[in-house]
C-alpha cells in the first residue's frame, strides 16, 4: 500500500452557499501537492456584517502552504466561485486555469486588484487537460446559470475525482452545450474514486426543468404586455437574457439593457463567442424616445439590490426612463433567502406606480441552475463513484445529500469547511481539522471575522453610544465638567430633560464625589464614569449605551 | 342629502403587514365621532431599525382628536392588532372592547405599561353589540390563527360596514366556531355599504385549507418519529398547539410546552374557556427524566427568534433538554419574509446535531390563517357590498385585491395609511391625506422614525466612527496634540501603521498648519479636523467614518 494519499479540504462553500474554495492534494501526509478549485466570495448583510464589502474564506492555511500549491482552477464565473481571485492571488501565486468566458471574468477580477492578468490561462474543454503536479485536470462542460460552467475531471495517482462544480442536467440550455450522457459515461468508464457533488437543490424533490422550457410562457407574457415591459434576472445568466431579448424582439419590441453588469456580461459572452445571434439592442438614450409599448428593458437587480437598475426604476427616473401605470415588471428569477425584504420593497414601490409585477410564484418564468434531487441521483448513477462527497450547500443540504448517497450504498461524508478528508481508500475518512473561518473586506482592508471590529459596530447600532471627555489639571483636579456627546440616542427620556445634560450632571456628580485615589487612577475614573453614564441612560431611556471615556491630563 | 359622512382612515396596516390601526368616523366633516379598530405593533429589524424594540403607527392624529374618540375595538389578540394598546392608551383614553380571550391578552398589555386594566371590556359575540357614539359594533366570530378572532359589524347612520379583521373561511377550525355562511347571510341581508377586507393572501390562487385538515399528516409524522420530537408553531395558534399535542398523546408521548409564550397562551385559552380537552402536560424538569422516544416538546420560536426555545435548543441545552441524532424537529409554520436567515440558522444548527428537520415545504404541516383569493371572492359574494376597501396588506396586495373587486363591478379603492376615505356614497372617495408614519419604541422612549436617531446608528454600523478631542488653552493655542478614539474600524490599513496614530498625526498636522482665524473658530476647526480624519481613513482603509470632534477651550 502506498504511503501517499489523496485529500479533499473545503476552505469555503461546505456548510454554506457562497465563497467556494476547495483544496485537493496528493502525496505523503503533510507534503501533498495541492490544487485549489474556485476562490469565491459571499455577500455581507446588515444583520451580521454591517459595513463589510465582501466576505472571503479564510485562506491562511493555503497561504502558509502555498509552496505546495500547483494551480488554481475556476469552474465558472459566478462571484461565489471567482470573486476572490484578485484579492488573494498575491498570497497564493499559482497559475489560474479556466475556460474562455470564465477567464474573461477572472482577468477583470485580477486587473481590478492590480494583479498581472497573465496568470489567468484560458483552456479548452475536455478532453483537453492541464497538468498540475500529480494532477491532470480537465474541464467538462455542464449546464448551470452562466455560460461555460464546468465540472472538473481530476485524475490522480489514487484514481479519478469528478468535481461537479455547480451544475444541472439540461438537454436544452439555450446557450452552451446540452447535457451529454454519452460523454459522462465515457468519463465514468475508468472508474470514479470520488464524486464531489453540488448539493444546493438536494431538497427539491422533482426533476429540474430545462432553460429551454421557458420561451413559450415568456413569449406569451411579453406578447400580451401592454405598456413597457421590464425584465430582471441575474446578468450572468446569459441564456436567460437571450431568451428574454428574443421574446421582446418576437413581440416587435426594441430591447435595451440597463445596468452595468447586464451590458458587460452580454458583451463578454459575445466577445468570447459564447453568445451568438443576440438581438440588436438600443441605448437608454434611444429608448427614451421610443413608444413604451414597443420597448423592453432587461435590467439588473433581481435580488432587490439598492443601487441596481430595478431599484432605481422603483424609486423614479433612471437614465431618463420611468415606469408607470400599465407597464409590466417581470422577475425572471428566484429570491435568494435573506433578500426578501429588498425585493418586496421594489415590488411594492412598483405597485404604487400602478405597474403590474409578475414573478415566478406560478413556476412559469424561471428555472434553477442547480440539479434537483432526482438529477443528483442520476449523476450518482452515471458516475458510480466509490465515494460521494457532497459540497456546495448549507449543512442541512450536505447532510441530506450524504444520506441520499448512503441510501444507495455509496460511502458518503458530511465534510464542512476545514475538514480534511482522505479519499484514497474505500471509505472517506476525516483525517484532520484545519482552522478556517471568514475574512472580511472592509473598505480596502482585510480583517478577520473575529477581530471585533464588526462586533463593535453592531453594538453601537443596537445600543447607541456616549463619548465622555474629562480634562484633569496638573493637580489631578477636574478642569471644568465632564463633557458628553451622544450618537444614536434619543434626545430625552423619562424626565423630559435633555439626556445629554442629565448624563453630564451624573458624570460630574461622580467626579465631585470621587476621592484622590480615584481621581489619580484613569482606570477607576473611566470605569466609574462608564457606570454612571449607563445607569443614567437606563433610568432615562431604558437602554445601556456603549460608552467611550477620554481623560486628558494636563502635565 | 345629509351633510354627515362615514369615513375610514387607516393609520397603520394599509400598505404593510403589521401595526394595524383603522379609524372609522361618522358626522359632519371634521367633527366625525370616531372609533379605532385595533392598535398593533410591528417588529424592527437590523436593516432599517437596529436597536429599536417595537414599531407603532404614528398615533398623533388620533391623539389630537381624542375628544372625538368613542371607543377602541380589538378584533383579535395578535401583536399586530393589540400590541400597542398599553403604550397608547394614556394618549387616547377611550374604553377598549374585545372578546374574552383577546381581553385577557389586552389586559396584560395594559398592565405591563401601567395602565388601568378596568378600561378593557370583554364582550360577547354577535348579535351582542356595543354602542359607541353613532356606531353600533358587534363581534362576529371568524376563523384565523388565534382563538376568538372577530370580524366587526359596524352599523352607522350611513349603513353597515363589515370590517373582516384577519380571517379565513374554515369549516373545521379545531378551536372556535366554524365558518357559518348562514350567519354571514343574515349579516349581509340589510345591505352592506362597505366591506373592509383582509388582503394578506390575495396572491394565493387556490382555496385555503382547513386547520382541521392537518391531523392525519401530523399524526403520521409524530407516530413515525423515532427519538424525541420537537414541534414549533406560533404560541397564539392554540388550535395548532392542540393538534400537535393531541398527535403526541396519540403516539403515546408525554407533551411538554417550552417557552413562556407557549405556556401562557395555552393557560389563557384554558382559563377563558376557549380551549377544552387539552392533554395533560409535563414540566421540563419531568421531561428530562423521560425516555426521549416518549417525549414531545412544543416550543416557541418558529420564526428563528434568537431567544426563543427553538433557537436555544439549536445552540445546546435548554432547561436541561438537548436534541441529538435521531430526533425530529418540525416547523408547523411558515417563515415570514425577512426571517429566513434566522430560521435557516436554526435548521443548520440542528442538522449539525444530526436532528432531522421537517418543514411545510411539502404543504403537509401548516395552513395559513388568512383567506386566499377564492375565499376572499366568496366573501365579496356573500357580503355583496356597495364598496370594497382592501386592508391589511402590502401595497401590492391592496392593489390586487382592489382589482379583484373592480373586476366584479364593486367600486374599490387602494387606501394606504393616512388616506381618509368617504364611504358614504356609491363610490369610495379619498377626501384627505392625514400625516402618518411610524413611531419607534427605543428602550423605554418613543421616538419618531424620522428623528435621525436610528439613522445615526446605521451610519456608525456601516462606516465606523472616529472621536477626536482637542484642548485649546487660554491663548487659543492647542494644548498637546489632538486625541482620537476609533470605534468599529480596522486597527491598520494600507501603511501597516496603527490607524489611530495616522489619524492623530493628520489631525495634528492640520492644527499645526491652521492660522489664528481657524484656531479661534470652533466650526472651522471641527470641519477641518473632520476632513483630514476622513481623508486619512479613506487613504488607509478605504472607508469614510463618522467623525465627532470635541474641542475643549480652557478659559
Q: What does it look like?
A:
Two copies of one chain form a homodimer. Chain A has 555 residues and is of the alpha/beta class. Chain A folds into three domains: 283 residues, Ribonuclease Z/Hydroxyacylglutathione hydrolase-like (Metallo-beta-lactamase, Chain A), CATH 3.60.15; 144 residues, Rossmann fold (3-Layer(aba) Sandwich), CATH 3.40.50; 90 residues, Ubiquitin-like (UB roll), CATH 3.10.20. Helix content of chain A is 31%, strand content 24%. Chain A is built from 17 helices and 27 strands. In chain A, the strands form six sheets. An eight-stranded mixed sheet of chain A has the order 8-7-6-4-3-1-21-22, covered by helices on one side. A six-stranded mixed sheet of chain A has the order 9-10-11-12-13-19. Chain A has a five-stranded parallel sheet with strand order 15-16-14-17-18, with helices on both faces. The radius of gyration of chain A is 29 Å and the shape is globular. Chain A starts with a strand and ends with a strand. The relative contact order of chain A is 0.11.
List keywords for this structure.
homodimer, Ubiquitin-like (UB roll), exonuclease (chains A, B), metal ion binding (chains A, B), Metallo-beta-lactamase, Chain A, Rossmann fold, 3 domains, eight-stranded mixed β-sheet, Ribonuclease J (chains A, B), nuclease (chains A, B), alpha/beta, 555 residues, 31% helix
Amino acid at each position: 500500500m502506498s504511503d501517499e494519499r489523496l485529500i479533499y479540504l473545503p476552505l469555503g462553500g461546505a456548510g454554506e452557499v457562497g465563497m467556494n474554495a476547495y483544496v485537493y492534494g496528493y502525496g505523503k501526509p503533510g507534503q501533498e501537492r495541492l490544487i485549489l478549485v474556485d476562490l469565491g466570495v459571499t455577500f455581507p448583510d446588515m444583520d451580521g456584517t454591517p459595513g463589510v464589502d465582501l466576505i472571503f474564506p479564510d485562506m491562511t492555511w493555503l497561504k502558509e502552504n502555498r509552496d505546495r500549491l500547483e494551480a488554481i482552477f475556476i469552474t465558472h464565473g459566478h462571484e461565489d466561485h471567482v470573486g476572490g481571485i484578485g484579492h488573494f492571488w498575491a498570497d497564493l501565486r499559482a497559475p489560474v486555469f479556466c475556460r474562455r468566458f470564465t477567464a474573461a471574468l477572472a482577468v477583470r477580477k485580477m486587473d481590478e486588484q492590480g494583479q498581472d492578468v497573465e496568470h489567468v490561462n484560458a483552456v479548452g474543454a475536455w478532453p483537453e487537460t492541464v497538468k498540475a503536479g500529480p494532477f491532470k485536470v480537465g474541464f467538462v462542460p455542464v449546464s448551470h446559470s452562466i455560460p461555460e460552467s464546468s465540472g472538473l475531471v481530476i485524475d490522480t495517482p489514487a484514481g479519478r475525482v469528478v468535481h461537479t462544480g455547480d451544475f444541472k442536467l439540461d438537454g436544452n440550455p439555450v446557450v452552451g452545450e446540452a447535457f451529454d450522457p454519452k460523454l459522462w459515461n465515457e468519463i465514468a468508464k475508468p472508474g470514479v474514486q470520488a464524486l464531489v457533488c453540488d448539493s444546493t437543490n438536494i431538497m427539491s424533490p422533482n426533476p429540474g426543468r430545462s432553460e429551454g422550457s421557458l420561451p413559450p410562457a415568456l413569449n406569451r407574457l411579453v406578447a400580451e404586455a401592454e405598456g413597457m415591459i421590464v425584465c430582471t434576472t441575474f446578468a450572468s445568466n446569459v441564456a436567460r437574457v437571450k431568451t428574454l431579448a428574443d421574446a421582446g424582439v418576437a413581440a416587435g419590441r426594441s430591447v435595451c439593457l440597463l445596468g452595468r453588469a447586464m451590458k458587460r456580461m452580454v458583451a463578454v459572452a459575445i466577445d468570447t463567442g459564447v453568445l451568438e445571434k443576440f438581438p440588436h439592442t438600443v441605448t437608454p438614450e434611444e429608448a427614451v424616445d421610443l413608444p413604451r409599448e414597443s420597448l423592453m428593458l432587461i435590467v439588473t437587480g433581481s435580488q432587490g439590490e439598492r443601487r441596481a437598475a430595478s431599484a432605481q426604476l422603483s424609486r423614479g427616473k433612471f437614465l431618463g426612463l420611468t415606469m408607470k401605470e400599465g407597464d409590466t415588471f417581470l422577475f425572471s428569477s428566484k429570491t435568494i433567502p435573506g433578500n426578501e425584504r429588498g425585493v418586496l420593497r421594489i415590488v411594492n414601490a412598483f405597485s404604487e406606480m400602478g405597474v403590474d409585477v409578475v414573478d415566478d410564484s406560478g413556476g412559469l418564468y424561471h428555472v434553477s441552475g442547480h440539479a434537483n434531487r432526482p438529477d443528483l441521483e442520476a449523476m450518482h448513477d452515471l458516475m458510480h463513484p466509490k465515494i460521494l462527497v457532497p459540497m456546495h450547500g448549507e449543512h442541512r443540504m450536505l447532510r441530506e445529500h450524504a444520506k441520499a448517497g448512503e441510501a444507495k450504498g455509496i460511502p458518503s461524508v458530511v465534510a464542512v469547511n476545514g475538514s480534511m478528508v482522505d479519499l484514497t481508500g474505500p471509505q472517506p475518512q476525516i483525517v484532520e481539522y484545519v482552522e478556517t473561518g471568514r475574512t472580511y473586506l472592509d473598505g480596502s482592508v482585510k480583517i478577520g471575522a473575529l477581530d471585533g471590529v464588526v462586533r463593535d459596530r453592531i453594538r453601537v447600532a443596537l445600543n447607541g453610544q456616549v463619548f465622555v471627555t474629562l480634562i484633569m489639571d496638573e493637580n489631578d483636579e477636574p478642569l471644568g465638567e465632564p463633557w458628553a456627546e451622544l450618537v444614536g440616542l434619543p434626545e430625552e427620556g423619562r424626565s423630559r430633560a435633555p439626556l445629554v445634560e442629565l448624563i453630564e450632571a451624573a458624570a460630574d456628580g461622580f467626579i465631585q464625589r470621587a476621592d484622590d485615589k480615584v481621581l489619580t487612577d484613569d482606570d477607576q475614573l473611566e470605569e466609574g464614569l462608564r457606570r454612571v453614564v449607563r445607569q443614567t441612560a437606563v433610568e432615562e431611556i431604558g437602554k445601556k449605551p456603549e460608552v467611550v471615556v477620554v481623560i486628558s491630563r494636563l502635565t
